[in-house]
Amino acid sequence: MTLALAIAALAAFYALFAPKPPPPTERPTRPISIEAGPNGYLGLVRWLDSQGVSTASLRKRYDGLSELTQGQSRDGHLLISTVPQIYPVRTSEVGALLSWVAGGNTLFLVAGLSDTPDWSMGEGADRELRKHVQEMTGLELIEAIAGEEVTTSPPEQKTQTGDDEARAPTLQEALAATSKLATPQVSELVPVGAHPLLAGVQRMEALSEYPSAQWRARSDSVNLVLAQDAATGRPALWLMRRGEGQIIVSAYGSILTNKQLGRHDNARFVANVVQWSVGPKGRVIIDDAHQGLVTFYDPAAFYGDKRLHKTLWWLLGLWFVFVLGSQRLRPGTSLWQPVDITSFVRATGGFLARVLRPATAARRLFANFFEEVARHTGLAADGAAVWAWLSARAVMPARELAQLRELHASASEGRRVDPVRVQTLLARVRERMK
Question: DSSP states of 37-66 as a string?
């Protein structure tokens, strides 16, 4: 019965308070340095390590780049960052990123623009992707669909640069844009001209699991188009200078993933980028932080940690042991707690000691002593008769008797006197009178 009630209590608590997890869905792998799945960068990292190229994982925001390269050279580093990001770039960290690049380093931004990998949908989608790319690189992206150029306004507010009136996408178009393709779309990039980054590169391949669009880009800074889409001829790879460093932007976000790195000349292009941008003491840094692999607090990672689940199971087990274990009933206690005579006397004495003057207490001690002597001798209960009787009987040494009489005189005149000394001398007199 106890077990059944405990299970019922636990079920009621779960039904009322515990959050209900959504139905399990297959989550696509993300482009991070420790991911061995199809969209990860573990293959890239292991390949670079095998070639003696130093690699590192950035698990803080961009203002942590200088800390990551501390002890290394200040320039000659390559940062590979992929967008869209789970934790999009903040305006407050853009300055640190661009200053780091201008100091002689390279940013390789792999952007899922002209392809739409599965990891860029759902929780990985970024509504302000074009804005973030422009902040990081200076490139202003303009979408080009079926010969039309559309500004970077939201889809429902797209404005055509020609004479035709603007129109909102139909329901069919919106559904098609978010529906996964039955067969992934393959796109090829071909070099535009000769450049050290394209040495030995004939074509590169990208893969898109969802429908995507083509893009144009313009920038106030000097830039160079390195490659274009083989089917449409639209630019797909840009190179820009930034101070002493440079920025490489790819419009395809899948070219470095585990599933695509070995396709055609993708790896050859990566090797050229590393050789061209990484110095003798430089490192290849993978931006894992903005893809969710962070060292700062992440609620999703905390609640998804297996150690938390194991701890909760242990607590649940201990709770069942406590509920089902032998529990002795606590004995009843009475609110009435009588005080014994010793405590009563101590409390009364403490009260009197706090409010009674020493001289008054000494006079009361002497009065009690005189009355006691009078009862035993028939004398008058006053000091003169008792002192005369004590002197005649010699019941105590003359010196102590003189001290006692002096204490009596001080108490009678209200001067300061030690009641403890008075009680001690009177107790000696009583002993000798027996």
Answer: STT-SHHHHHHHHHTT--EEEE-S-GGGHH
The residues facing 106 across adjacent strands are 78, 246
Strand partners, 190: 228
Using DSSP, state whether 421 is helix, strand or coil. helix
How far is the C-alpha of 242 from the C-alpha of 138, rounded, in Å? 10
Distance CA 302, CA 300 (A): 5
Predicted confidence (pLDDT) per residue in 182-227, tens digit:
888 899 999 998 899 999 999 999 988 888 777 777 776 657 889 9
Residue 237: which of 221, 217, 257 has the closest Cα? 217
Q: Under DSSP, is residue 409 helix (H, G, I), strand (E, B) or coil?
A: helix
Q: Which domains does the chain possess?
A: 31-292 (3.40.50), 341-433 (no CATH)
Q: Write phi, then psi, for 111 (nearest 5 degrees).
A: -110, 130
By the 8 A CB rule, do 238 and 257 touch? no
Q: Could you give the CA distance from residue 19 to residue 196 in angstroms, rounded to a whole number?
A: 55
Residue pair 64/283 in contact by the 8 Å Cβ criterion: no
Kindly give, in sequence order, each residue whose CB lies less than 8 Å from that of residue 377, ignoring residues fewer than 6 positions away.
Answer: 389
Structure tokens at 31: 């482009």
Dist. CA 209–CA 314, nearest whole Å: 42
Residues whose CB falls within 8 Å of the CB of residue 231, separated by 6 or more in sequence, listed in order: 187, 188
Exposure letters 208-219 (e unless 16+ CB within 10 A, then b): bbbebebbebeb
Q: How far apart are CA 208 and CA 212, in angstroms?
A: 8
Helices (H) and strands (E) in the chain, counts: 14, 12
- pLDDT band for 47, please (50, 70, 90 cuts): very high
